[in-house]
Amino acid sequence: MRKPDWLKVPLPNSREFIEVRGLLDSLDLHSVCQEARCPNMGECFRAGTATFLILGRLCTRNCRYCNVRHGKPAPVDESEPERLAAAAKHLGLRHIVITSVTRDDLPDGGAALFARCVRLLKEEIPDCRVEVLIPDLRGNWEALERILEAGPRVLNHNVEVIPRLFSDLRPQGSYALSLELLGRAAERGGPITKSGFMIGFGEQRDEILSLLDDLSAASCSSLTIGQYLQPTAAHRPVDKFYTPEEFEGFRREALLRGFRTVVSGPLVRSSYRAAEYA
C-alpha cells in the first residue's frame, strides 16, 4: 500500500541528528529510534533527545511487526548505566526515556539493570525525570518491584496490539499478563502508568474501543496510539492507514474513559514527545 501524504517525513540529516548519533556511537549506546526505524527519529534527534535502548540489540522474542533484531543476546554490560548517564548529561536531558529489548534469558528480565540506570540518572542529574518502557518480565513481580523501587517518574509497558492479534503478532507475549503488570504498577502508586498500541493490522473499531476499556480498567493513566508502518517486506503488511481525523476520534474516546493524557496520531510512537506530555 502506498503511504498517504500525512505519513511522509523528511530524511533525518540535521546537524543535531548527526551529533546525537555520533554521541551514541562514541559511547557504544543504542537507541530504539534507530533500531526500530522510528519515523520521528529526525525530529527527536534534532531536539537533542533519544530513547535509550539498554541490554543489547538482540531481542529474545520475534514479534511480526518489530524491526529490532532477534537472536541470542550477549551477556549484560554492567557499565552501560554509567555511559547512559554520561550521554544524558552531555545532551542536557531533563526527561530521559529508557527501554530495552526483551531478555527472557535473564531470570529478572533485566530489571536489575533498569533499576541501576534509574538510580544513577537521578544521582547524576537530580532534577531529571526518568521514564522506563519495560517488557512484561514474564510475570516476575519481584523484578517489577525492583524497578518501581528505583523511582521512575513514568512506568510504561505497551500492549502493542488488540488481544485477538496477540497469537499472530506477539506469540511470546500475553495480553492478560500485560494488563496485570500495568494494574500492579498502578496499585502500588508512585509512577505514572502508561501504555500504547498500534493500529493498522485489520482490527475493528469495537476491538479498539474494548482495548481502551481494558487499559482504563487497569488504571493506566497515559496512552499513545499510533499507525503501524511495515518496517521491511518480511514483516506483517499494513491493512489500513488511518486518517488523522480517525486518530483524533480515538483520542476523544480515550479521554472519555478517564485517561489523563492521550497522544494519538499517525506518526505517534511510545516515546514521542514524552517530556512534553509527562
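The above is record 1. Record 2 follows with the same two-line structure.
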Amino acid sequence: MATSSYYVPESSYFPIVASFGLIGMAAGAGGMINHMSAGGVGYAFPHLVFLVGALLLASVLYNWFSKVVTESRAGMYSPQMDMSFRWGMGWFIFSEVMFFAAFFGVLLYVRQWAGPWLDGQGDKGSSHMLWPDFDYAWPMFNNPAGADLPGPNAVIDPWHIPLLNTVLLMSSSVTLTIAHHALRAMHRGKTIFWLAVTVILGAVFVYYQVMEYIEAYTELGLTLDSGIYGSTFFMLTGFHGVHVTLGAFILFVMWIRICKGHFTPEQHFGFEAAAWYWHFVDMVWVGLFLFVYIL
C-alpha cells in the first residue's frame, strides 16, 4: 500500500553522470559526422567518445530505473508521486511530438515553398536566378545543376515494404492494447503472450526497415547524398526507426517484469508509460507513410 506522504528520494549522482554521458554522445556524434565527411581520414576518436558516453548513460538508466522499480514495489510512492510520473511522461511525449513536428515542418517547407521558389514560382520566385535551368518536381530526381548531388534513380514503392510495415505497427498497437486489458484483468499469462507478440512485431518492423534501406542504397541510388529528398527521407524514417527500436526494447523490459510478477491491476504505470510511447510511435509512422511515401 502506497504511503500518503510525498516520497522525496535521497541525493543521487545519477543526474550529473547522465549529463556527462549525454555530452559525450553529442560530442562523439558530431565528431563522427565530421569524420565521415572527411572521408574517414584520421583516427576515429569520436567513435570512442560516443561509445563511452552511451555506456555511461546506459549504466545510469539501468541503475536509476532499477532503483525506481525497487522503491515502487516497496510501496514508497503515494498517489501524488504517481501523478508526477504521469505528468512527466506526458511532457516527454509532448517533446517528442515537437521533435517530429520540426522534421515534418522541414518537409512541408521544402515541398510547398523552397522548391517552388527555386523554380520561379511564388512571391520569392526571383530565387530562380540561382539555377535558371532548374525545374522543380517532388520527388526531386534532378537536383540543381552545380550542386554536385546526384538525385535518386527511383523512390521506395509505398505499396510493398512501407505498407507491410504499416500493417505490422498498426497490428502491434492492437496486440499491446489486448495485453493492457489482460493485465488490468489480472490475466498474467495472456498479458505475457500478447506483449511478446507486440515486441516481435516491432522487431520485424525494424528488420524490414533495414531491408528497405539496403534496397535504397544499393538499387535506387537513394542515399543521404542524393539531395534534399534523400536527406529528409532518411532523417524522418531514420529517427522513427530509432524510436521503434527503443520502444520495442522498453516493451521487452516490461515483458521481463511481468514474467517476474511485477505490476498489479491497480499499479502498473511502468507498463502504461511504455504503451503510451509505443502508440505515439505508431501514430508518427502513419504520418510518415502518408507524407513521405505516398503524397
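Residues 1-77 form one domain.
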